[in-house]
Amino acid sequence: MPYPSDRERDRPWVMRTYAGHSSATKSNELYRRNLSKGQTGLSIAFDLPTQTGYDPDHELAKGEVGKVGVPVTHIGDMRTLFDQIPLGVANTSMTINATAMWLLSLYVSVAQEQAEAEGADWHEVVAKLAGTTQNDIIKEYLSRGTYVFPPGPSLRLITDMVAWTVSNVPKWNPINICSYHLQEVGATPVQEVAYAMCTAIAVLDAVRDSGQVPAEKFGEVVSRISFFVNAGVRFIEEMCKMRAFTELWDEITRDRYGITDEKQRRFRYGVQVNSLGLTEAQPENNVQRIVLEMLAVSLSRKARARAIQLPAWNEALGLPRPWDQQWALRMQQVLAYETDLLEYEDIFDGSPVIEAKVNEIITGAREEIDRVQAMGGAVAAVESGYMKTQMVGSLAERRRLIENGEQVIVGVNKFDTTEPSPLQAEGAKAIETADPAAELEAVEAVRRWRSERDAAAVDESLRKLREAAKTDVNLMDATLACAHAGVTTGEWSAALREVFGEYRAPTGVSGASVGGEAGVELAAVRERVKATGEELGERLRMLVGKPGLDGHSNGAEQIAVRARDTGFEVVYQGIRLTPDQIVAAAVQEGVHVVGLSILSGSHLEAVPAVVEGLRAAGAGDVPVVVGGIIPPDDAKILAERGVARVFTPKDYEMTQIMDEIVNVIREANKLP
C-alpha cells in the first residue's frame, strides 16, 4: 500500500472481513459476494484440521471440519476456493501458521495454473502476488495452539519461506508477526509490543544466520516483515501502543540490523479489533466497541493500519451471517469515505499526554525485550514457559478486575438491565451455522482425491520432501512439488512430523495465580471445596480437558488456575486431546469432575464422546461440565446427552463457576 506525502489525502487501508467455512465452494461464493460489496482484500479463515496438518478423515478432525474456517486439503480445494478470483490482482491474507509453507505453495501453484490458462507468463504473475501468510509460530505456542512441530524446525520453515519469497514473490509478506492473539490471552500493551518484537528478532536473526539471503538484500527481508495486531476498547492507550510499535521497530531495524533505508524500516501492520472483548450479554453493544477499537488503529496517521478487518457484532454467539459481515465492512467504509479522517497530518504530534504514554510503553517494552533476550531469545522463553506464564498471570489479573467491578464491562458487570433485542428476536436466526453435511462430504472428497491421483508421483514427492527435511536445503521447492503432485495437507504434515517430531508447549498454569484476590467469595468456595473433600474422604480433583483441535486455551487455563486457587487438585494436560485420552486420564487420576472447554463449535461431537467414554470405562458417575461458545439449543442437547452444566461467556465470574462445580460434585455423590 503506497504511502502518500503528508500534503496528500491518505489512501484508504485494505478492507477485509475474516471469512470461510463449510467448504471451498461455499467459501468461494462468500468471497466473491464480499468483493462485490467493496471489500478490497480477502482474509482467509482455515478450519482447524487444515491449520494443524490433518486431513478431514483423521480421528482428531472429527467434528472440526469446516467449523471455524474453510477446509483446504489439496490443490483441488485451492482451485475451487479462488475460482473466478484472479490471484494476480488479489490481496489475500491467510491466517495459517504451522502449515503456512504448504498453503502458500498451494496458492502459488494455483496462480501458476491461472496464468497458464490465460496464456500469461506465470513467473510474472507470481511476482505480482500480494498478501500475507500469518506464519508466526511463536505466538501459537503462547495462545492459539495451532502449532505442530517443535520451535526449532518451525523457525526453519519460516526462514525458508522468507528467503524464498524475497527472491520469487517480492510483494508477498511471508510472515506477519502476530501480537493479536497475545492480547487475546492476556498480554498488556507492554507485553504485546515486547513479545512481538522478540519474535521478529528471532525470525530476522534466523534468516540472517541461515546464509540464504545476501547481506546486501537483507533490507528487502526487513521490508517484507509485517505485523498483525489487536486493538482493544481503551482506544487512546491502544493508539499509543501503535505509535510505540512504530518507533521501536524503526529503532530495532536501524540499530540491530543496520537498515538505512527509511522505507524498509517502516512498520507495516494489519489489524483485527479485539474479539475477546465482545460480549454474549447485550451483544448489540459490540457494535460501538468495534467502532471505537477501529479508531485506535486509524486516528494516528504515522501509526495507521494499512489493512483492517473487523469482527461482526455477534461473534460471541457463533458464526456471523453474510449480513453481519456486510455491517462490519460498512463501518470501515463510512470511516474512510464519509469522514475527514484521511485529510490531515498526524493529529497527535506534539501532544505531551500522548508522548508520555508512548514513552511509558516503549520503556516497559525495552525492559521486557532485554529480559527475554537475556534468556536466549523468544524460542528459549517459549520452551521455558516464561512468556506463557506471564500472560496467563496477566489474564488472571484482568479477570479479577472484571469480577470485582474495577474494570467495567457494560451489560455484563454493570448496566446489565436490558430490553429484548430485535437483533435476536425469535426466528431472527442470529448466527450462521456450518452445514453439518460438510464434514462427511469433505471426508468422501479426500478419499476420492487419493484414489484418482498419480500415487507414484505423490510417493516420490513425499520421499524427496522427507530427504530434504533431513538437510538444511530450503524446503519450498520440495513443498511446491508436493502441491503439484496432489499431496494432501495431512500427508505433507505427516512427512515432516516423521523428521521433525511433534511438540507440546508449556501450559503456563503452574506458575500463575489470582494475585490480589481479596475475596470473601473465594474464601467461601475454598471452604466448600475443602468440606466436600472431607465428606468424600479425599481432596477434590478436577480434570480440565481440551478435546479436538481447538487450541484457544486461555479459558481452560483460567479455569484451571481458579480451580487450583479454590482448593481443587487440578489435572490439565494442555490442548489437542482425543476423547479417549481425556477419559483415560479421568479414570487414571480418579477425578471427581471433568470440565471440557471448546470454542470451535465441535461440542456436539466431542462432548458426548467423552460422556459415553466415561460410561463405557465404568466411570459414568463422574459428572461432565462444559464451557464455550454454545448456543442455547445446543446446550439443551448436551444436557439431554448427560452433561451436568453448560457455561458460556455470560458466566464470567469464575469463582461462581467453581461454586457451581462443587454443587455438581455434591449432586453426583448424593451429598446434601
UniProtKB/TrEMBL annotation:
PANTHER family on file: COENZYME B12-DEPENDENT MUTASE, METHYLMALONYL-COA MUTASE, MITOCHONDRIAL-RELATED
Record note on quaternary structure: Heterodimer of an alpha and a beta chain.
Gene3D superfamilies xrefs: Cobalamin-binding domain (3.40.50.280), Methylmalonyl-CoA mutase (3.20.20.240)
Classification via InterPro entries: Acid_CoA_mut_C (IPR006159), Cbl-dep_enz_cat (IPR016176), Cobalamin-bd (IPR006158), Cobalamin-bd_sf (IPR036724), MeMalonylCoA_mutase_a/b_cat (IPR006099), MMCoA_mutase_a_cat (IPR006098)
UniProt name for this protein: Protein meaA
Family according to the record: Belongs to the methylmalonyl-CoA mutase family.
Cofactor(s) named in the record: adenosylcob(III)alamin
Pfam families linked to this entry: B12-binding (PF02310), MM_CoA_mutase (PF01642)
Keywords of the record: Cobalamin, Cobalt, Isomerase, Metal-binding
CDD domains: MM_CoA_mut_B12_BD
Occurrences of domain B12-binding (ranges): 539-668
